[in-house]
Amino acid sequence: MTLKIKHITLALVTILLLVICSCENLEEDFNVQQFENPIKIAVVSDISISRASAENIILSTQLAAKEINASGGLRINGTKHEIELIHKDSGGNPELGLEVIAELQEQEVNLIVGPSISAVALDMAEYCIQENMLMISFSATIPSLSTLNDNDLVWRTCPSDEFSGQIMSAYAYDSLNFRNAAIFHRNDNFGNSLAKIIQNNFELLGGNILSVESYPASINDQDDYNYAEKLNLILSQNPEIIFVSIFERELIKITQDLWNSPVYQSMPVKPKIFLSEGGYEKDLLTGGQTEILESIIGISSTVTSTDNYIRYKENFFQRYNFDPLSYSEHAYDAVYAYAYAIQKAQSTDPNIVKNHLRAVTGGEGSNDNAVEINVNEFTRATTLIDSDLDINYQGASGKIDFDSNGDPLSRYAIWGFQNGNVITFSIYNK
């Protein structure tokens, strides 16, 4: 089997092959370790969407579980418990996602981290609600997850596109002073939803959306798809900025097709490209069309300059010898949110655990004077909890502060490129 591994040195390939081979099916036998009175948490990722991202999710959740277990694990009614992760692949397919969740239910695994994408998350959420399973997604951003009649069983550590779309529109209109824009997006739940949010907000501010174009989300090989026709339709309207909602795997080809477009080359002033959240920076630096990098900006719900993100990144690198990708920090935080809520609840019952998720993360109705807990401070946190003191976990992805819908109160960074480096232009509070 030939595997293409991004962002790592050749010296690491041998080590990572063990992980990657285990990820082909993401089944229970991935875990060869024996766990003491295990508390099983399922991690559902989507290798078909991005193998590199899925592997990062697996590794980040393993990092969290190893830190917790190495710190003495959880204690429920005086008995020690360790976290055991059960890894599954939904394949980016809603039907397969339902098979995965049904399989987990049969195995009595009722605490879920994931899935990755909105199309899978919506159906999986409905199943969890029906069967009293608790779900925390780390990267499914579609707004409709917030409004489900979910009996508080559906959460996420990544924010809704409702907020990122508002901020993208406001930054383009207020900070960049643009009035004429276009939108290019995947034709799926994620892309269609975010496109509408951006269009509505930009027009409410007084801006004009000159063109909205989409491309099929069902393409098997994005490298073979020619985006030029759609891009040329957009460029012919002469927008100042193009809002783009895509997946990572499509980005490199889009930048190449854009640069190779005669329409683009003929434009005296090239439009800005505004990317939705997705962790595109490394892919752009390693494979993007170099000539247009400084025309690209993006949004991220992780502010990478915070002490907690830096600590997480250092711990991740120390264990795996390469840097984490976007959304891995959100998955890491989901494991910790579960752990602290379980410790507070003294139970693994989803209907009890859910009642403590806000309390341990500074969420709605929590104690304003709770003690802040940083990344990899599990022993300190559990000591406080066992002393009947309140904690407020500050995550690798930033503050969590779950609201009434189970969404985090995230901060956003607007980033871009200067002289081949990624820099932060602005930070927004939700």
Q: What is the makeup of the main sheet?
A: 7 strands, mixed
Oligomerization category of the chains in this entry? single chain
Shape: elongated
Our measurement of the CA-to-CA distance between the termini, rounded to an integer number of angstroms, reads: 45 Å
Helix content: 25-40%
- Secondary structure tally: strands: 17
Class derived from helix and strand content: alpha/beta
Strand percentage:
15-25%
User: How large is the count of helical segments?
Assistant: 14
Q: Kindly state the mean pLDDT as a whole number?
A: 91
Q: How would you sum up this structure in a few lines?
A:
With 430 residues, the protein is an alpha/beta fold.
Structure report:
There is one protein chain. The chain is of the alpha/beta class. The chain is 39% helix and 20% strand. The protein is built from 14 helices and 17 strands. It has helices at 13-22, 51-70, 94-106, 118-131, 161-175, 189-205, 228-235, 248-259, 262-266, 281-287, 307-320, 328-345, 350-353, 378-386, and strands at 39-45, 74-76, 79-81, 83-89, 111-113, 134-137, 154-156, 180-187, 208-216, 241-245, 272-275, 296-300, 371-373, 391-395, 398-399, 411-418, 421-429. The protein has a seven-stranded mixed beta sheet with strand order 9-8-10-11-12-16-17, with helices on both faces. β14 (391-395) and β15 (398-399) form a beta hairpin. α3 (94-106) packs parallel to α4 and α5 runs parallel beside α6 (189-205). The longest helix is centred in the first third of the chain and has 20 residues, at 51-70. 50% of the residues are buried. Residues 1-31 have low confidence and may be disordered.
